[in-house]
Inverse folding.
């Protein structure tokens, strides 16, 4: 890797293959599977400086750096991870992993089912956040990491950080839960179902077995992404960036692209439909819907969080209406009631839910300050 002052440089993805069966919450069992991951920085002698980055719905293991010097884009959180950045790879050993069921190298619906020699397709089992945490714990074992200095994630990644603190309290020192929620609202579940219906009703979906038909439900996935993308942005942010700008300067009185926001959404939908697997999208949104750590404790989130021994940072963004600050405050209130140490920040931003990926200065400074504290604990 490069020793550049602001980048982890050129990185290489790795694959961990597991032959031990993995029982899932659905009752299904994966007889074997693989996880694709990347690491940045060096694990110290005490193996105490490791940080796990959990990705959101459309994320993956490529968190920082580039595979080749001329890559147009770096990893999805390159602005946060690297030498001198808030998640400083001079001090931390950072691990990014593509979740089980993914489409970027971890075993998922597009992988070959060893029992049939064909892609899993519709036969791939539904996975939950707890299943991901379990599989990640096995990866930690493989890497020799007994305890994470921190588990960090935004959105669906924040749910994983929260689940880690409950399922493996002795293996996590800090949980950073950003732009997340203790469970989805009915509105969020509704958005997810509309997105799934767009995919499932695409004639090219073929019940999830489109691989065998040499087909791709591009239209459905495109619509799902367009819908999702709208909910990740704020009205003010969209207004400031696009307003009611017309591409041609005047109305054309038709149904083709006229407004710049339409062009932007269609571009995002097209790009996503060429890069992401439709079945993986279904799995990820279902994992979001099912996430509810209080469910196993009679609906009592406080009781669930009493299992945790980590320290917490919970952060929200003022313009995020998909995972609003009120939802983060629910988590904070439960943590306080469970006598867990928690810091909370509500950050001014116009970027909506996507703010956790951005570089708003108060957010960057918050992350830097908190992770400086984590680094001091590691060094103590």
């Amino acid at each position: 890797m490069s020793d550049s002052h602001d980048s982890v440089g050129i990185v290489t993805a790795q694959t961990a293959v597991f032959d031990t069966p993995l029982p899932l919450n659905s009752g299904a069992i994966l007889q074997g599977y693989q996880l694709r991951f990347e690491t940045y920085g060096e694990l110290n002698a005490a193996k105490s400086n490791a940080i796990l980055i959990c990705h959101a719905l459309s994320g993956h293991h490529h968190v920082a750096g580039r595979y080749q010097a001329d890559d147009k884009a770096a990893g999805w959180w390159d602005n946060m991870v690297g030498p001198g950045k808030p998640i400083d790879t001079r001090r931390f050993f950072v691990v990014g992993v593509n979740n089980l069921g993914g489409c970027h190298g971890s075993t998922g619906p597009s992988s070959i089912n060893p029992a049939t020699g064909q892609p899993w397709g519709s036969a791939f089992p539904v996975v939950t956040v707890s299943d991901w945490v379990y599989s990640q714990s096995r990866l930690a074992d493989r890497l020799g990491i007994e305890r994470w200095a921190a588990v960090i994630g935004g959105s669906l990644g924040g749910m994983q950080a929260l689940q880690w603190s409950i399922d493996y309290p002795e293996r996590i020192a800090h949980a950073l839960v950003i732009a997340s929620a203790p469970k989805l609202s009915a509105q969020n579940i509704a958005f997810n179902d509309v997105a799934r219906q767009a995919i499932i009703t695409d004639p090219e979906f073929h019940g999830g077995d489109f691989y065998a038909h040499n087909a791709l439900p591009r239209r459905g996935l495109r619509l799902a992404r367009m819908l999702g993308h709208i909910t990740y942005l704020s009205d003010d942010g969209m207004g400031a960036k696009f307003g009611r700008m017309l591409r041609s300067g005047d109305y054309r009185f038709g149904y083709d692209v006229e407004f710049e926001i339409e062009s932007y959404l269609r571009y995002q939908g097209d790009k996503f439909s060429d890069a992401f697997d439709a079945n993986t999208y279904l799995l990820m949104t279902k994992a979001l819907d099912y996430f509810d750590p209080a469910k196993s404790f009679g609906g009592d989130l406080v009781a669930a969080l009493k299992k945790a021994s980590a320290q917490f940072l919970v952060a929200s963004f003022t313009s995020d209406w998909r995972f609003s600050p009120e939802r983060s405050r629910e988590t904070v209130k439960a943590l306080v009631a469970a006598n867990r140490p928690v810091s909370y920040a509500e950050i001014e931003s116009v970027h909506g839910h996507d703010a956790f990926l951005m570089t708003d200065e108060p957010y960057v400074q918050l992350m830097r300050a908190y992770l400086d504290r984590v680094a001091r604990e590691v060094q103590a």
Observations:
- The chain has ten helices and twelve strands.
- The mean pLDDT is 96.
- Residues 361-379 form the longest helix (19 residues).
- The longest strand covers residues 33-40.
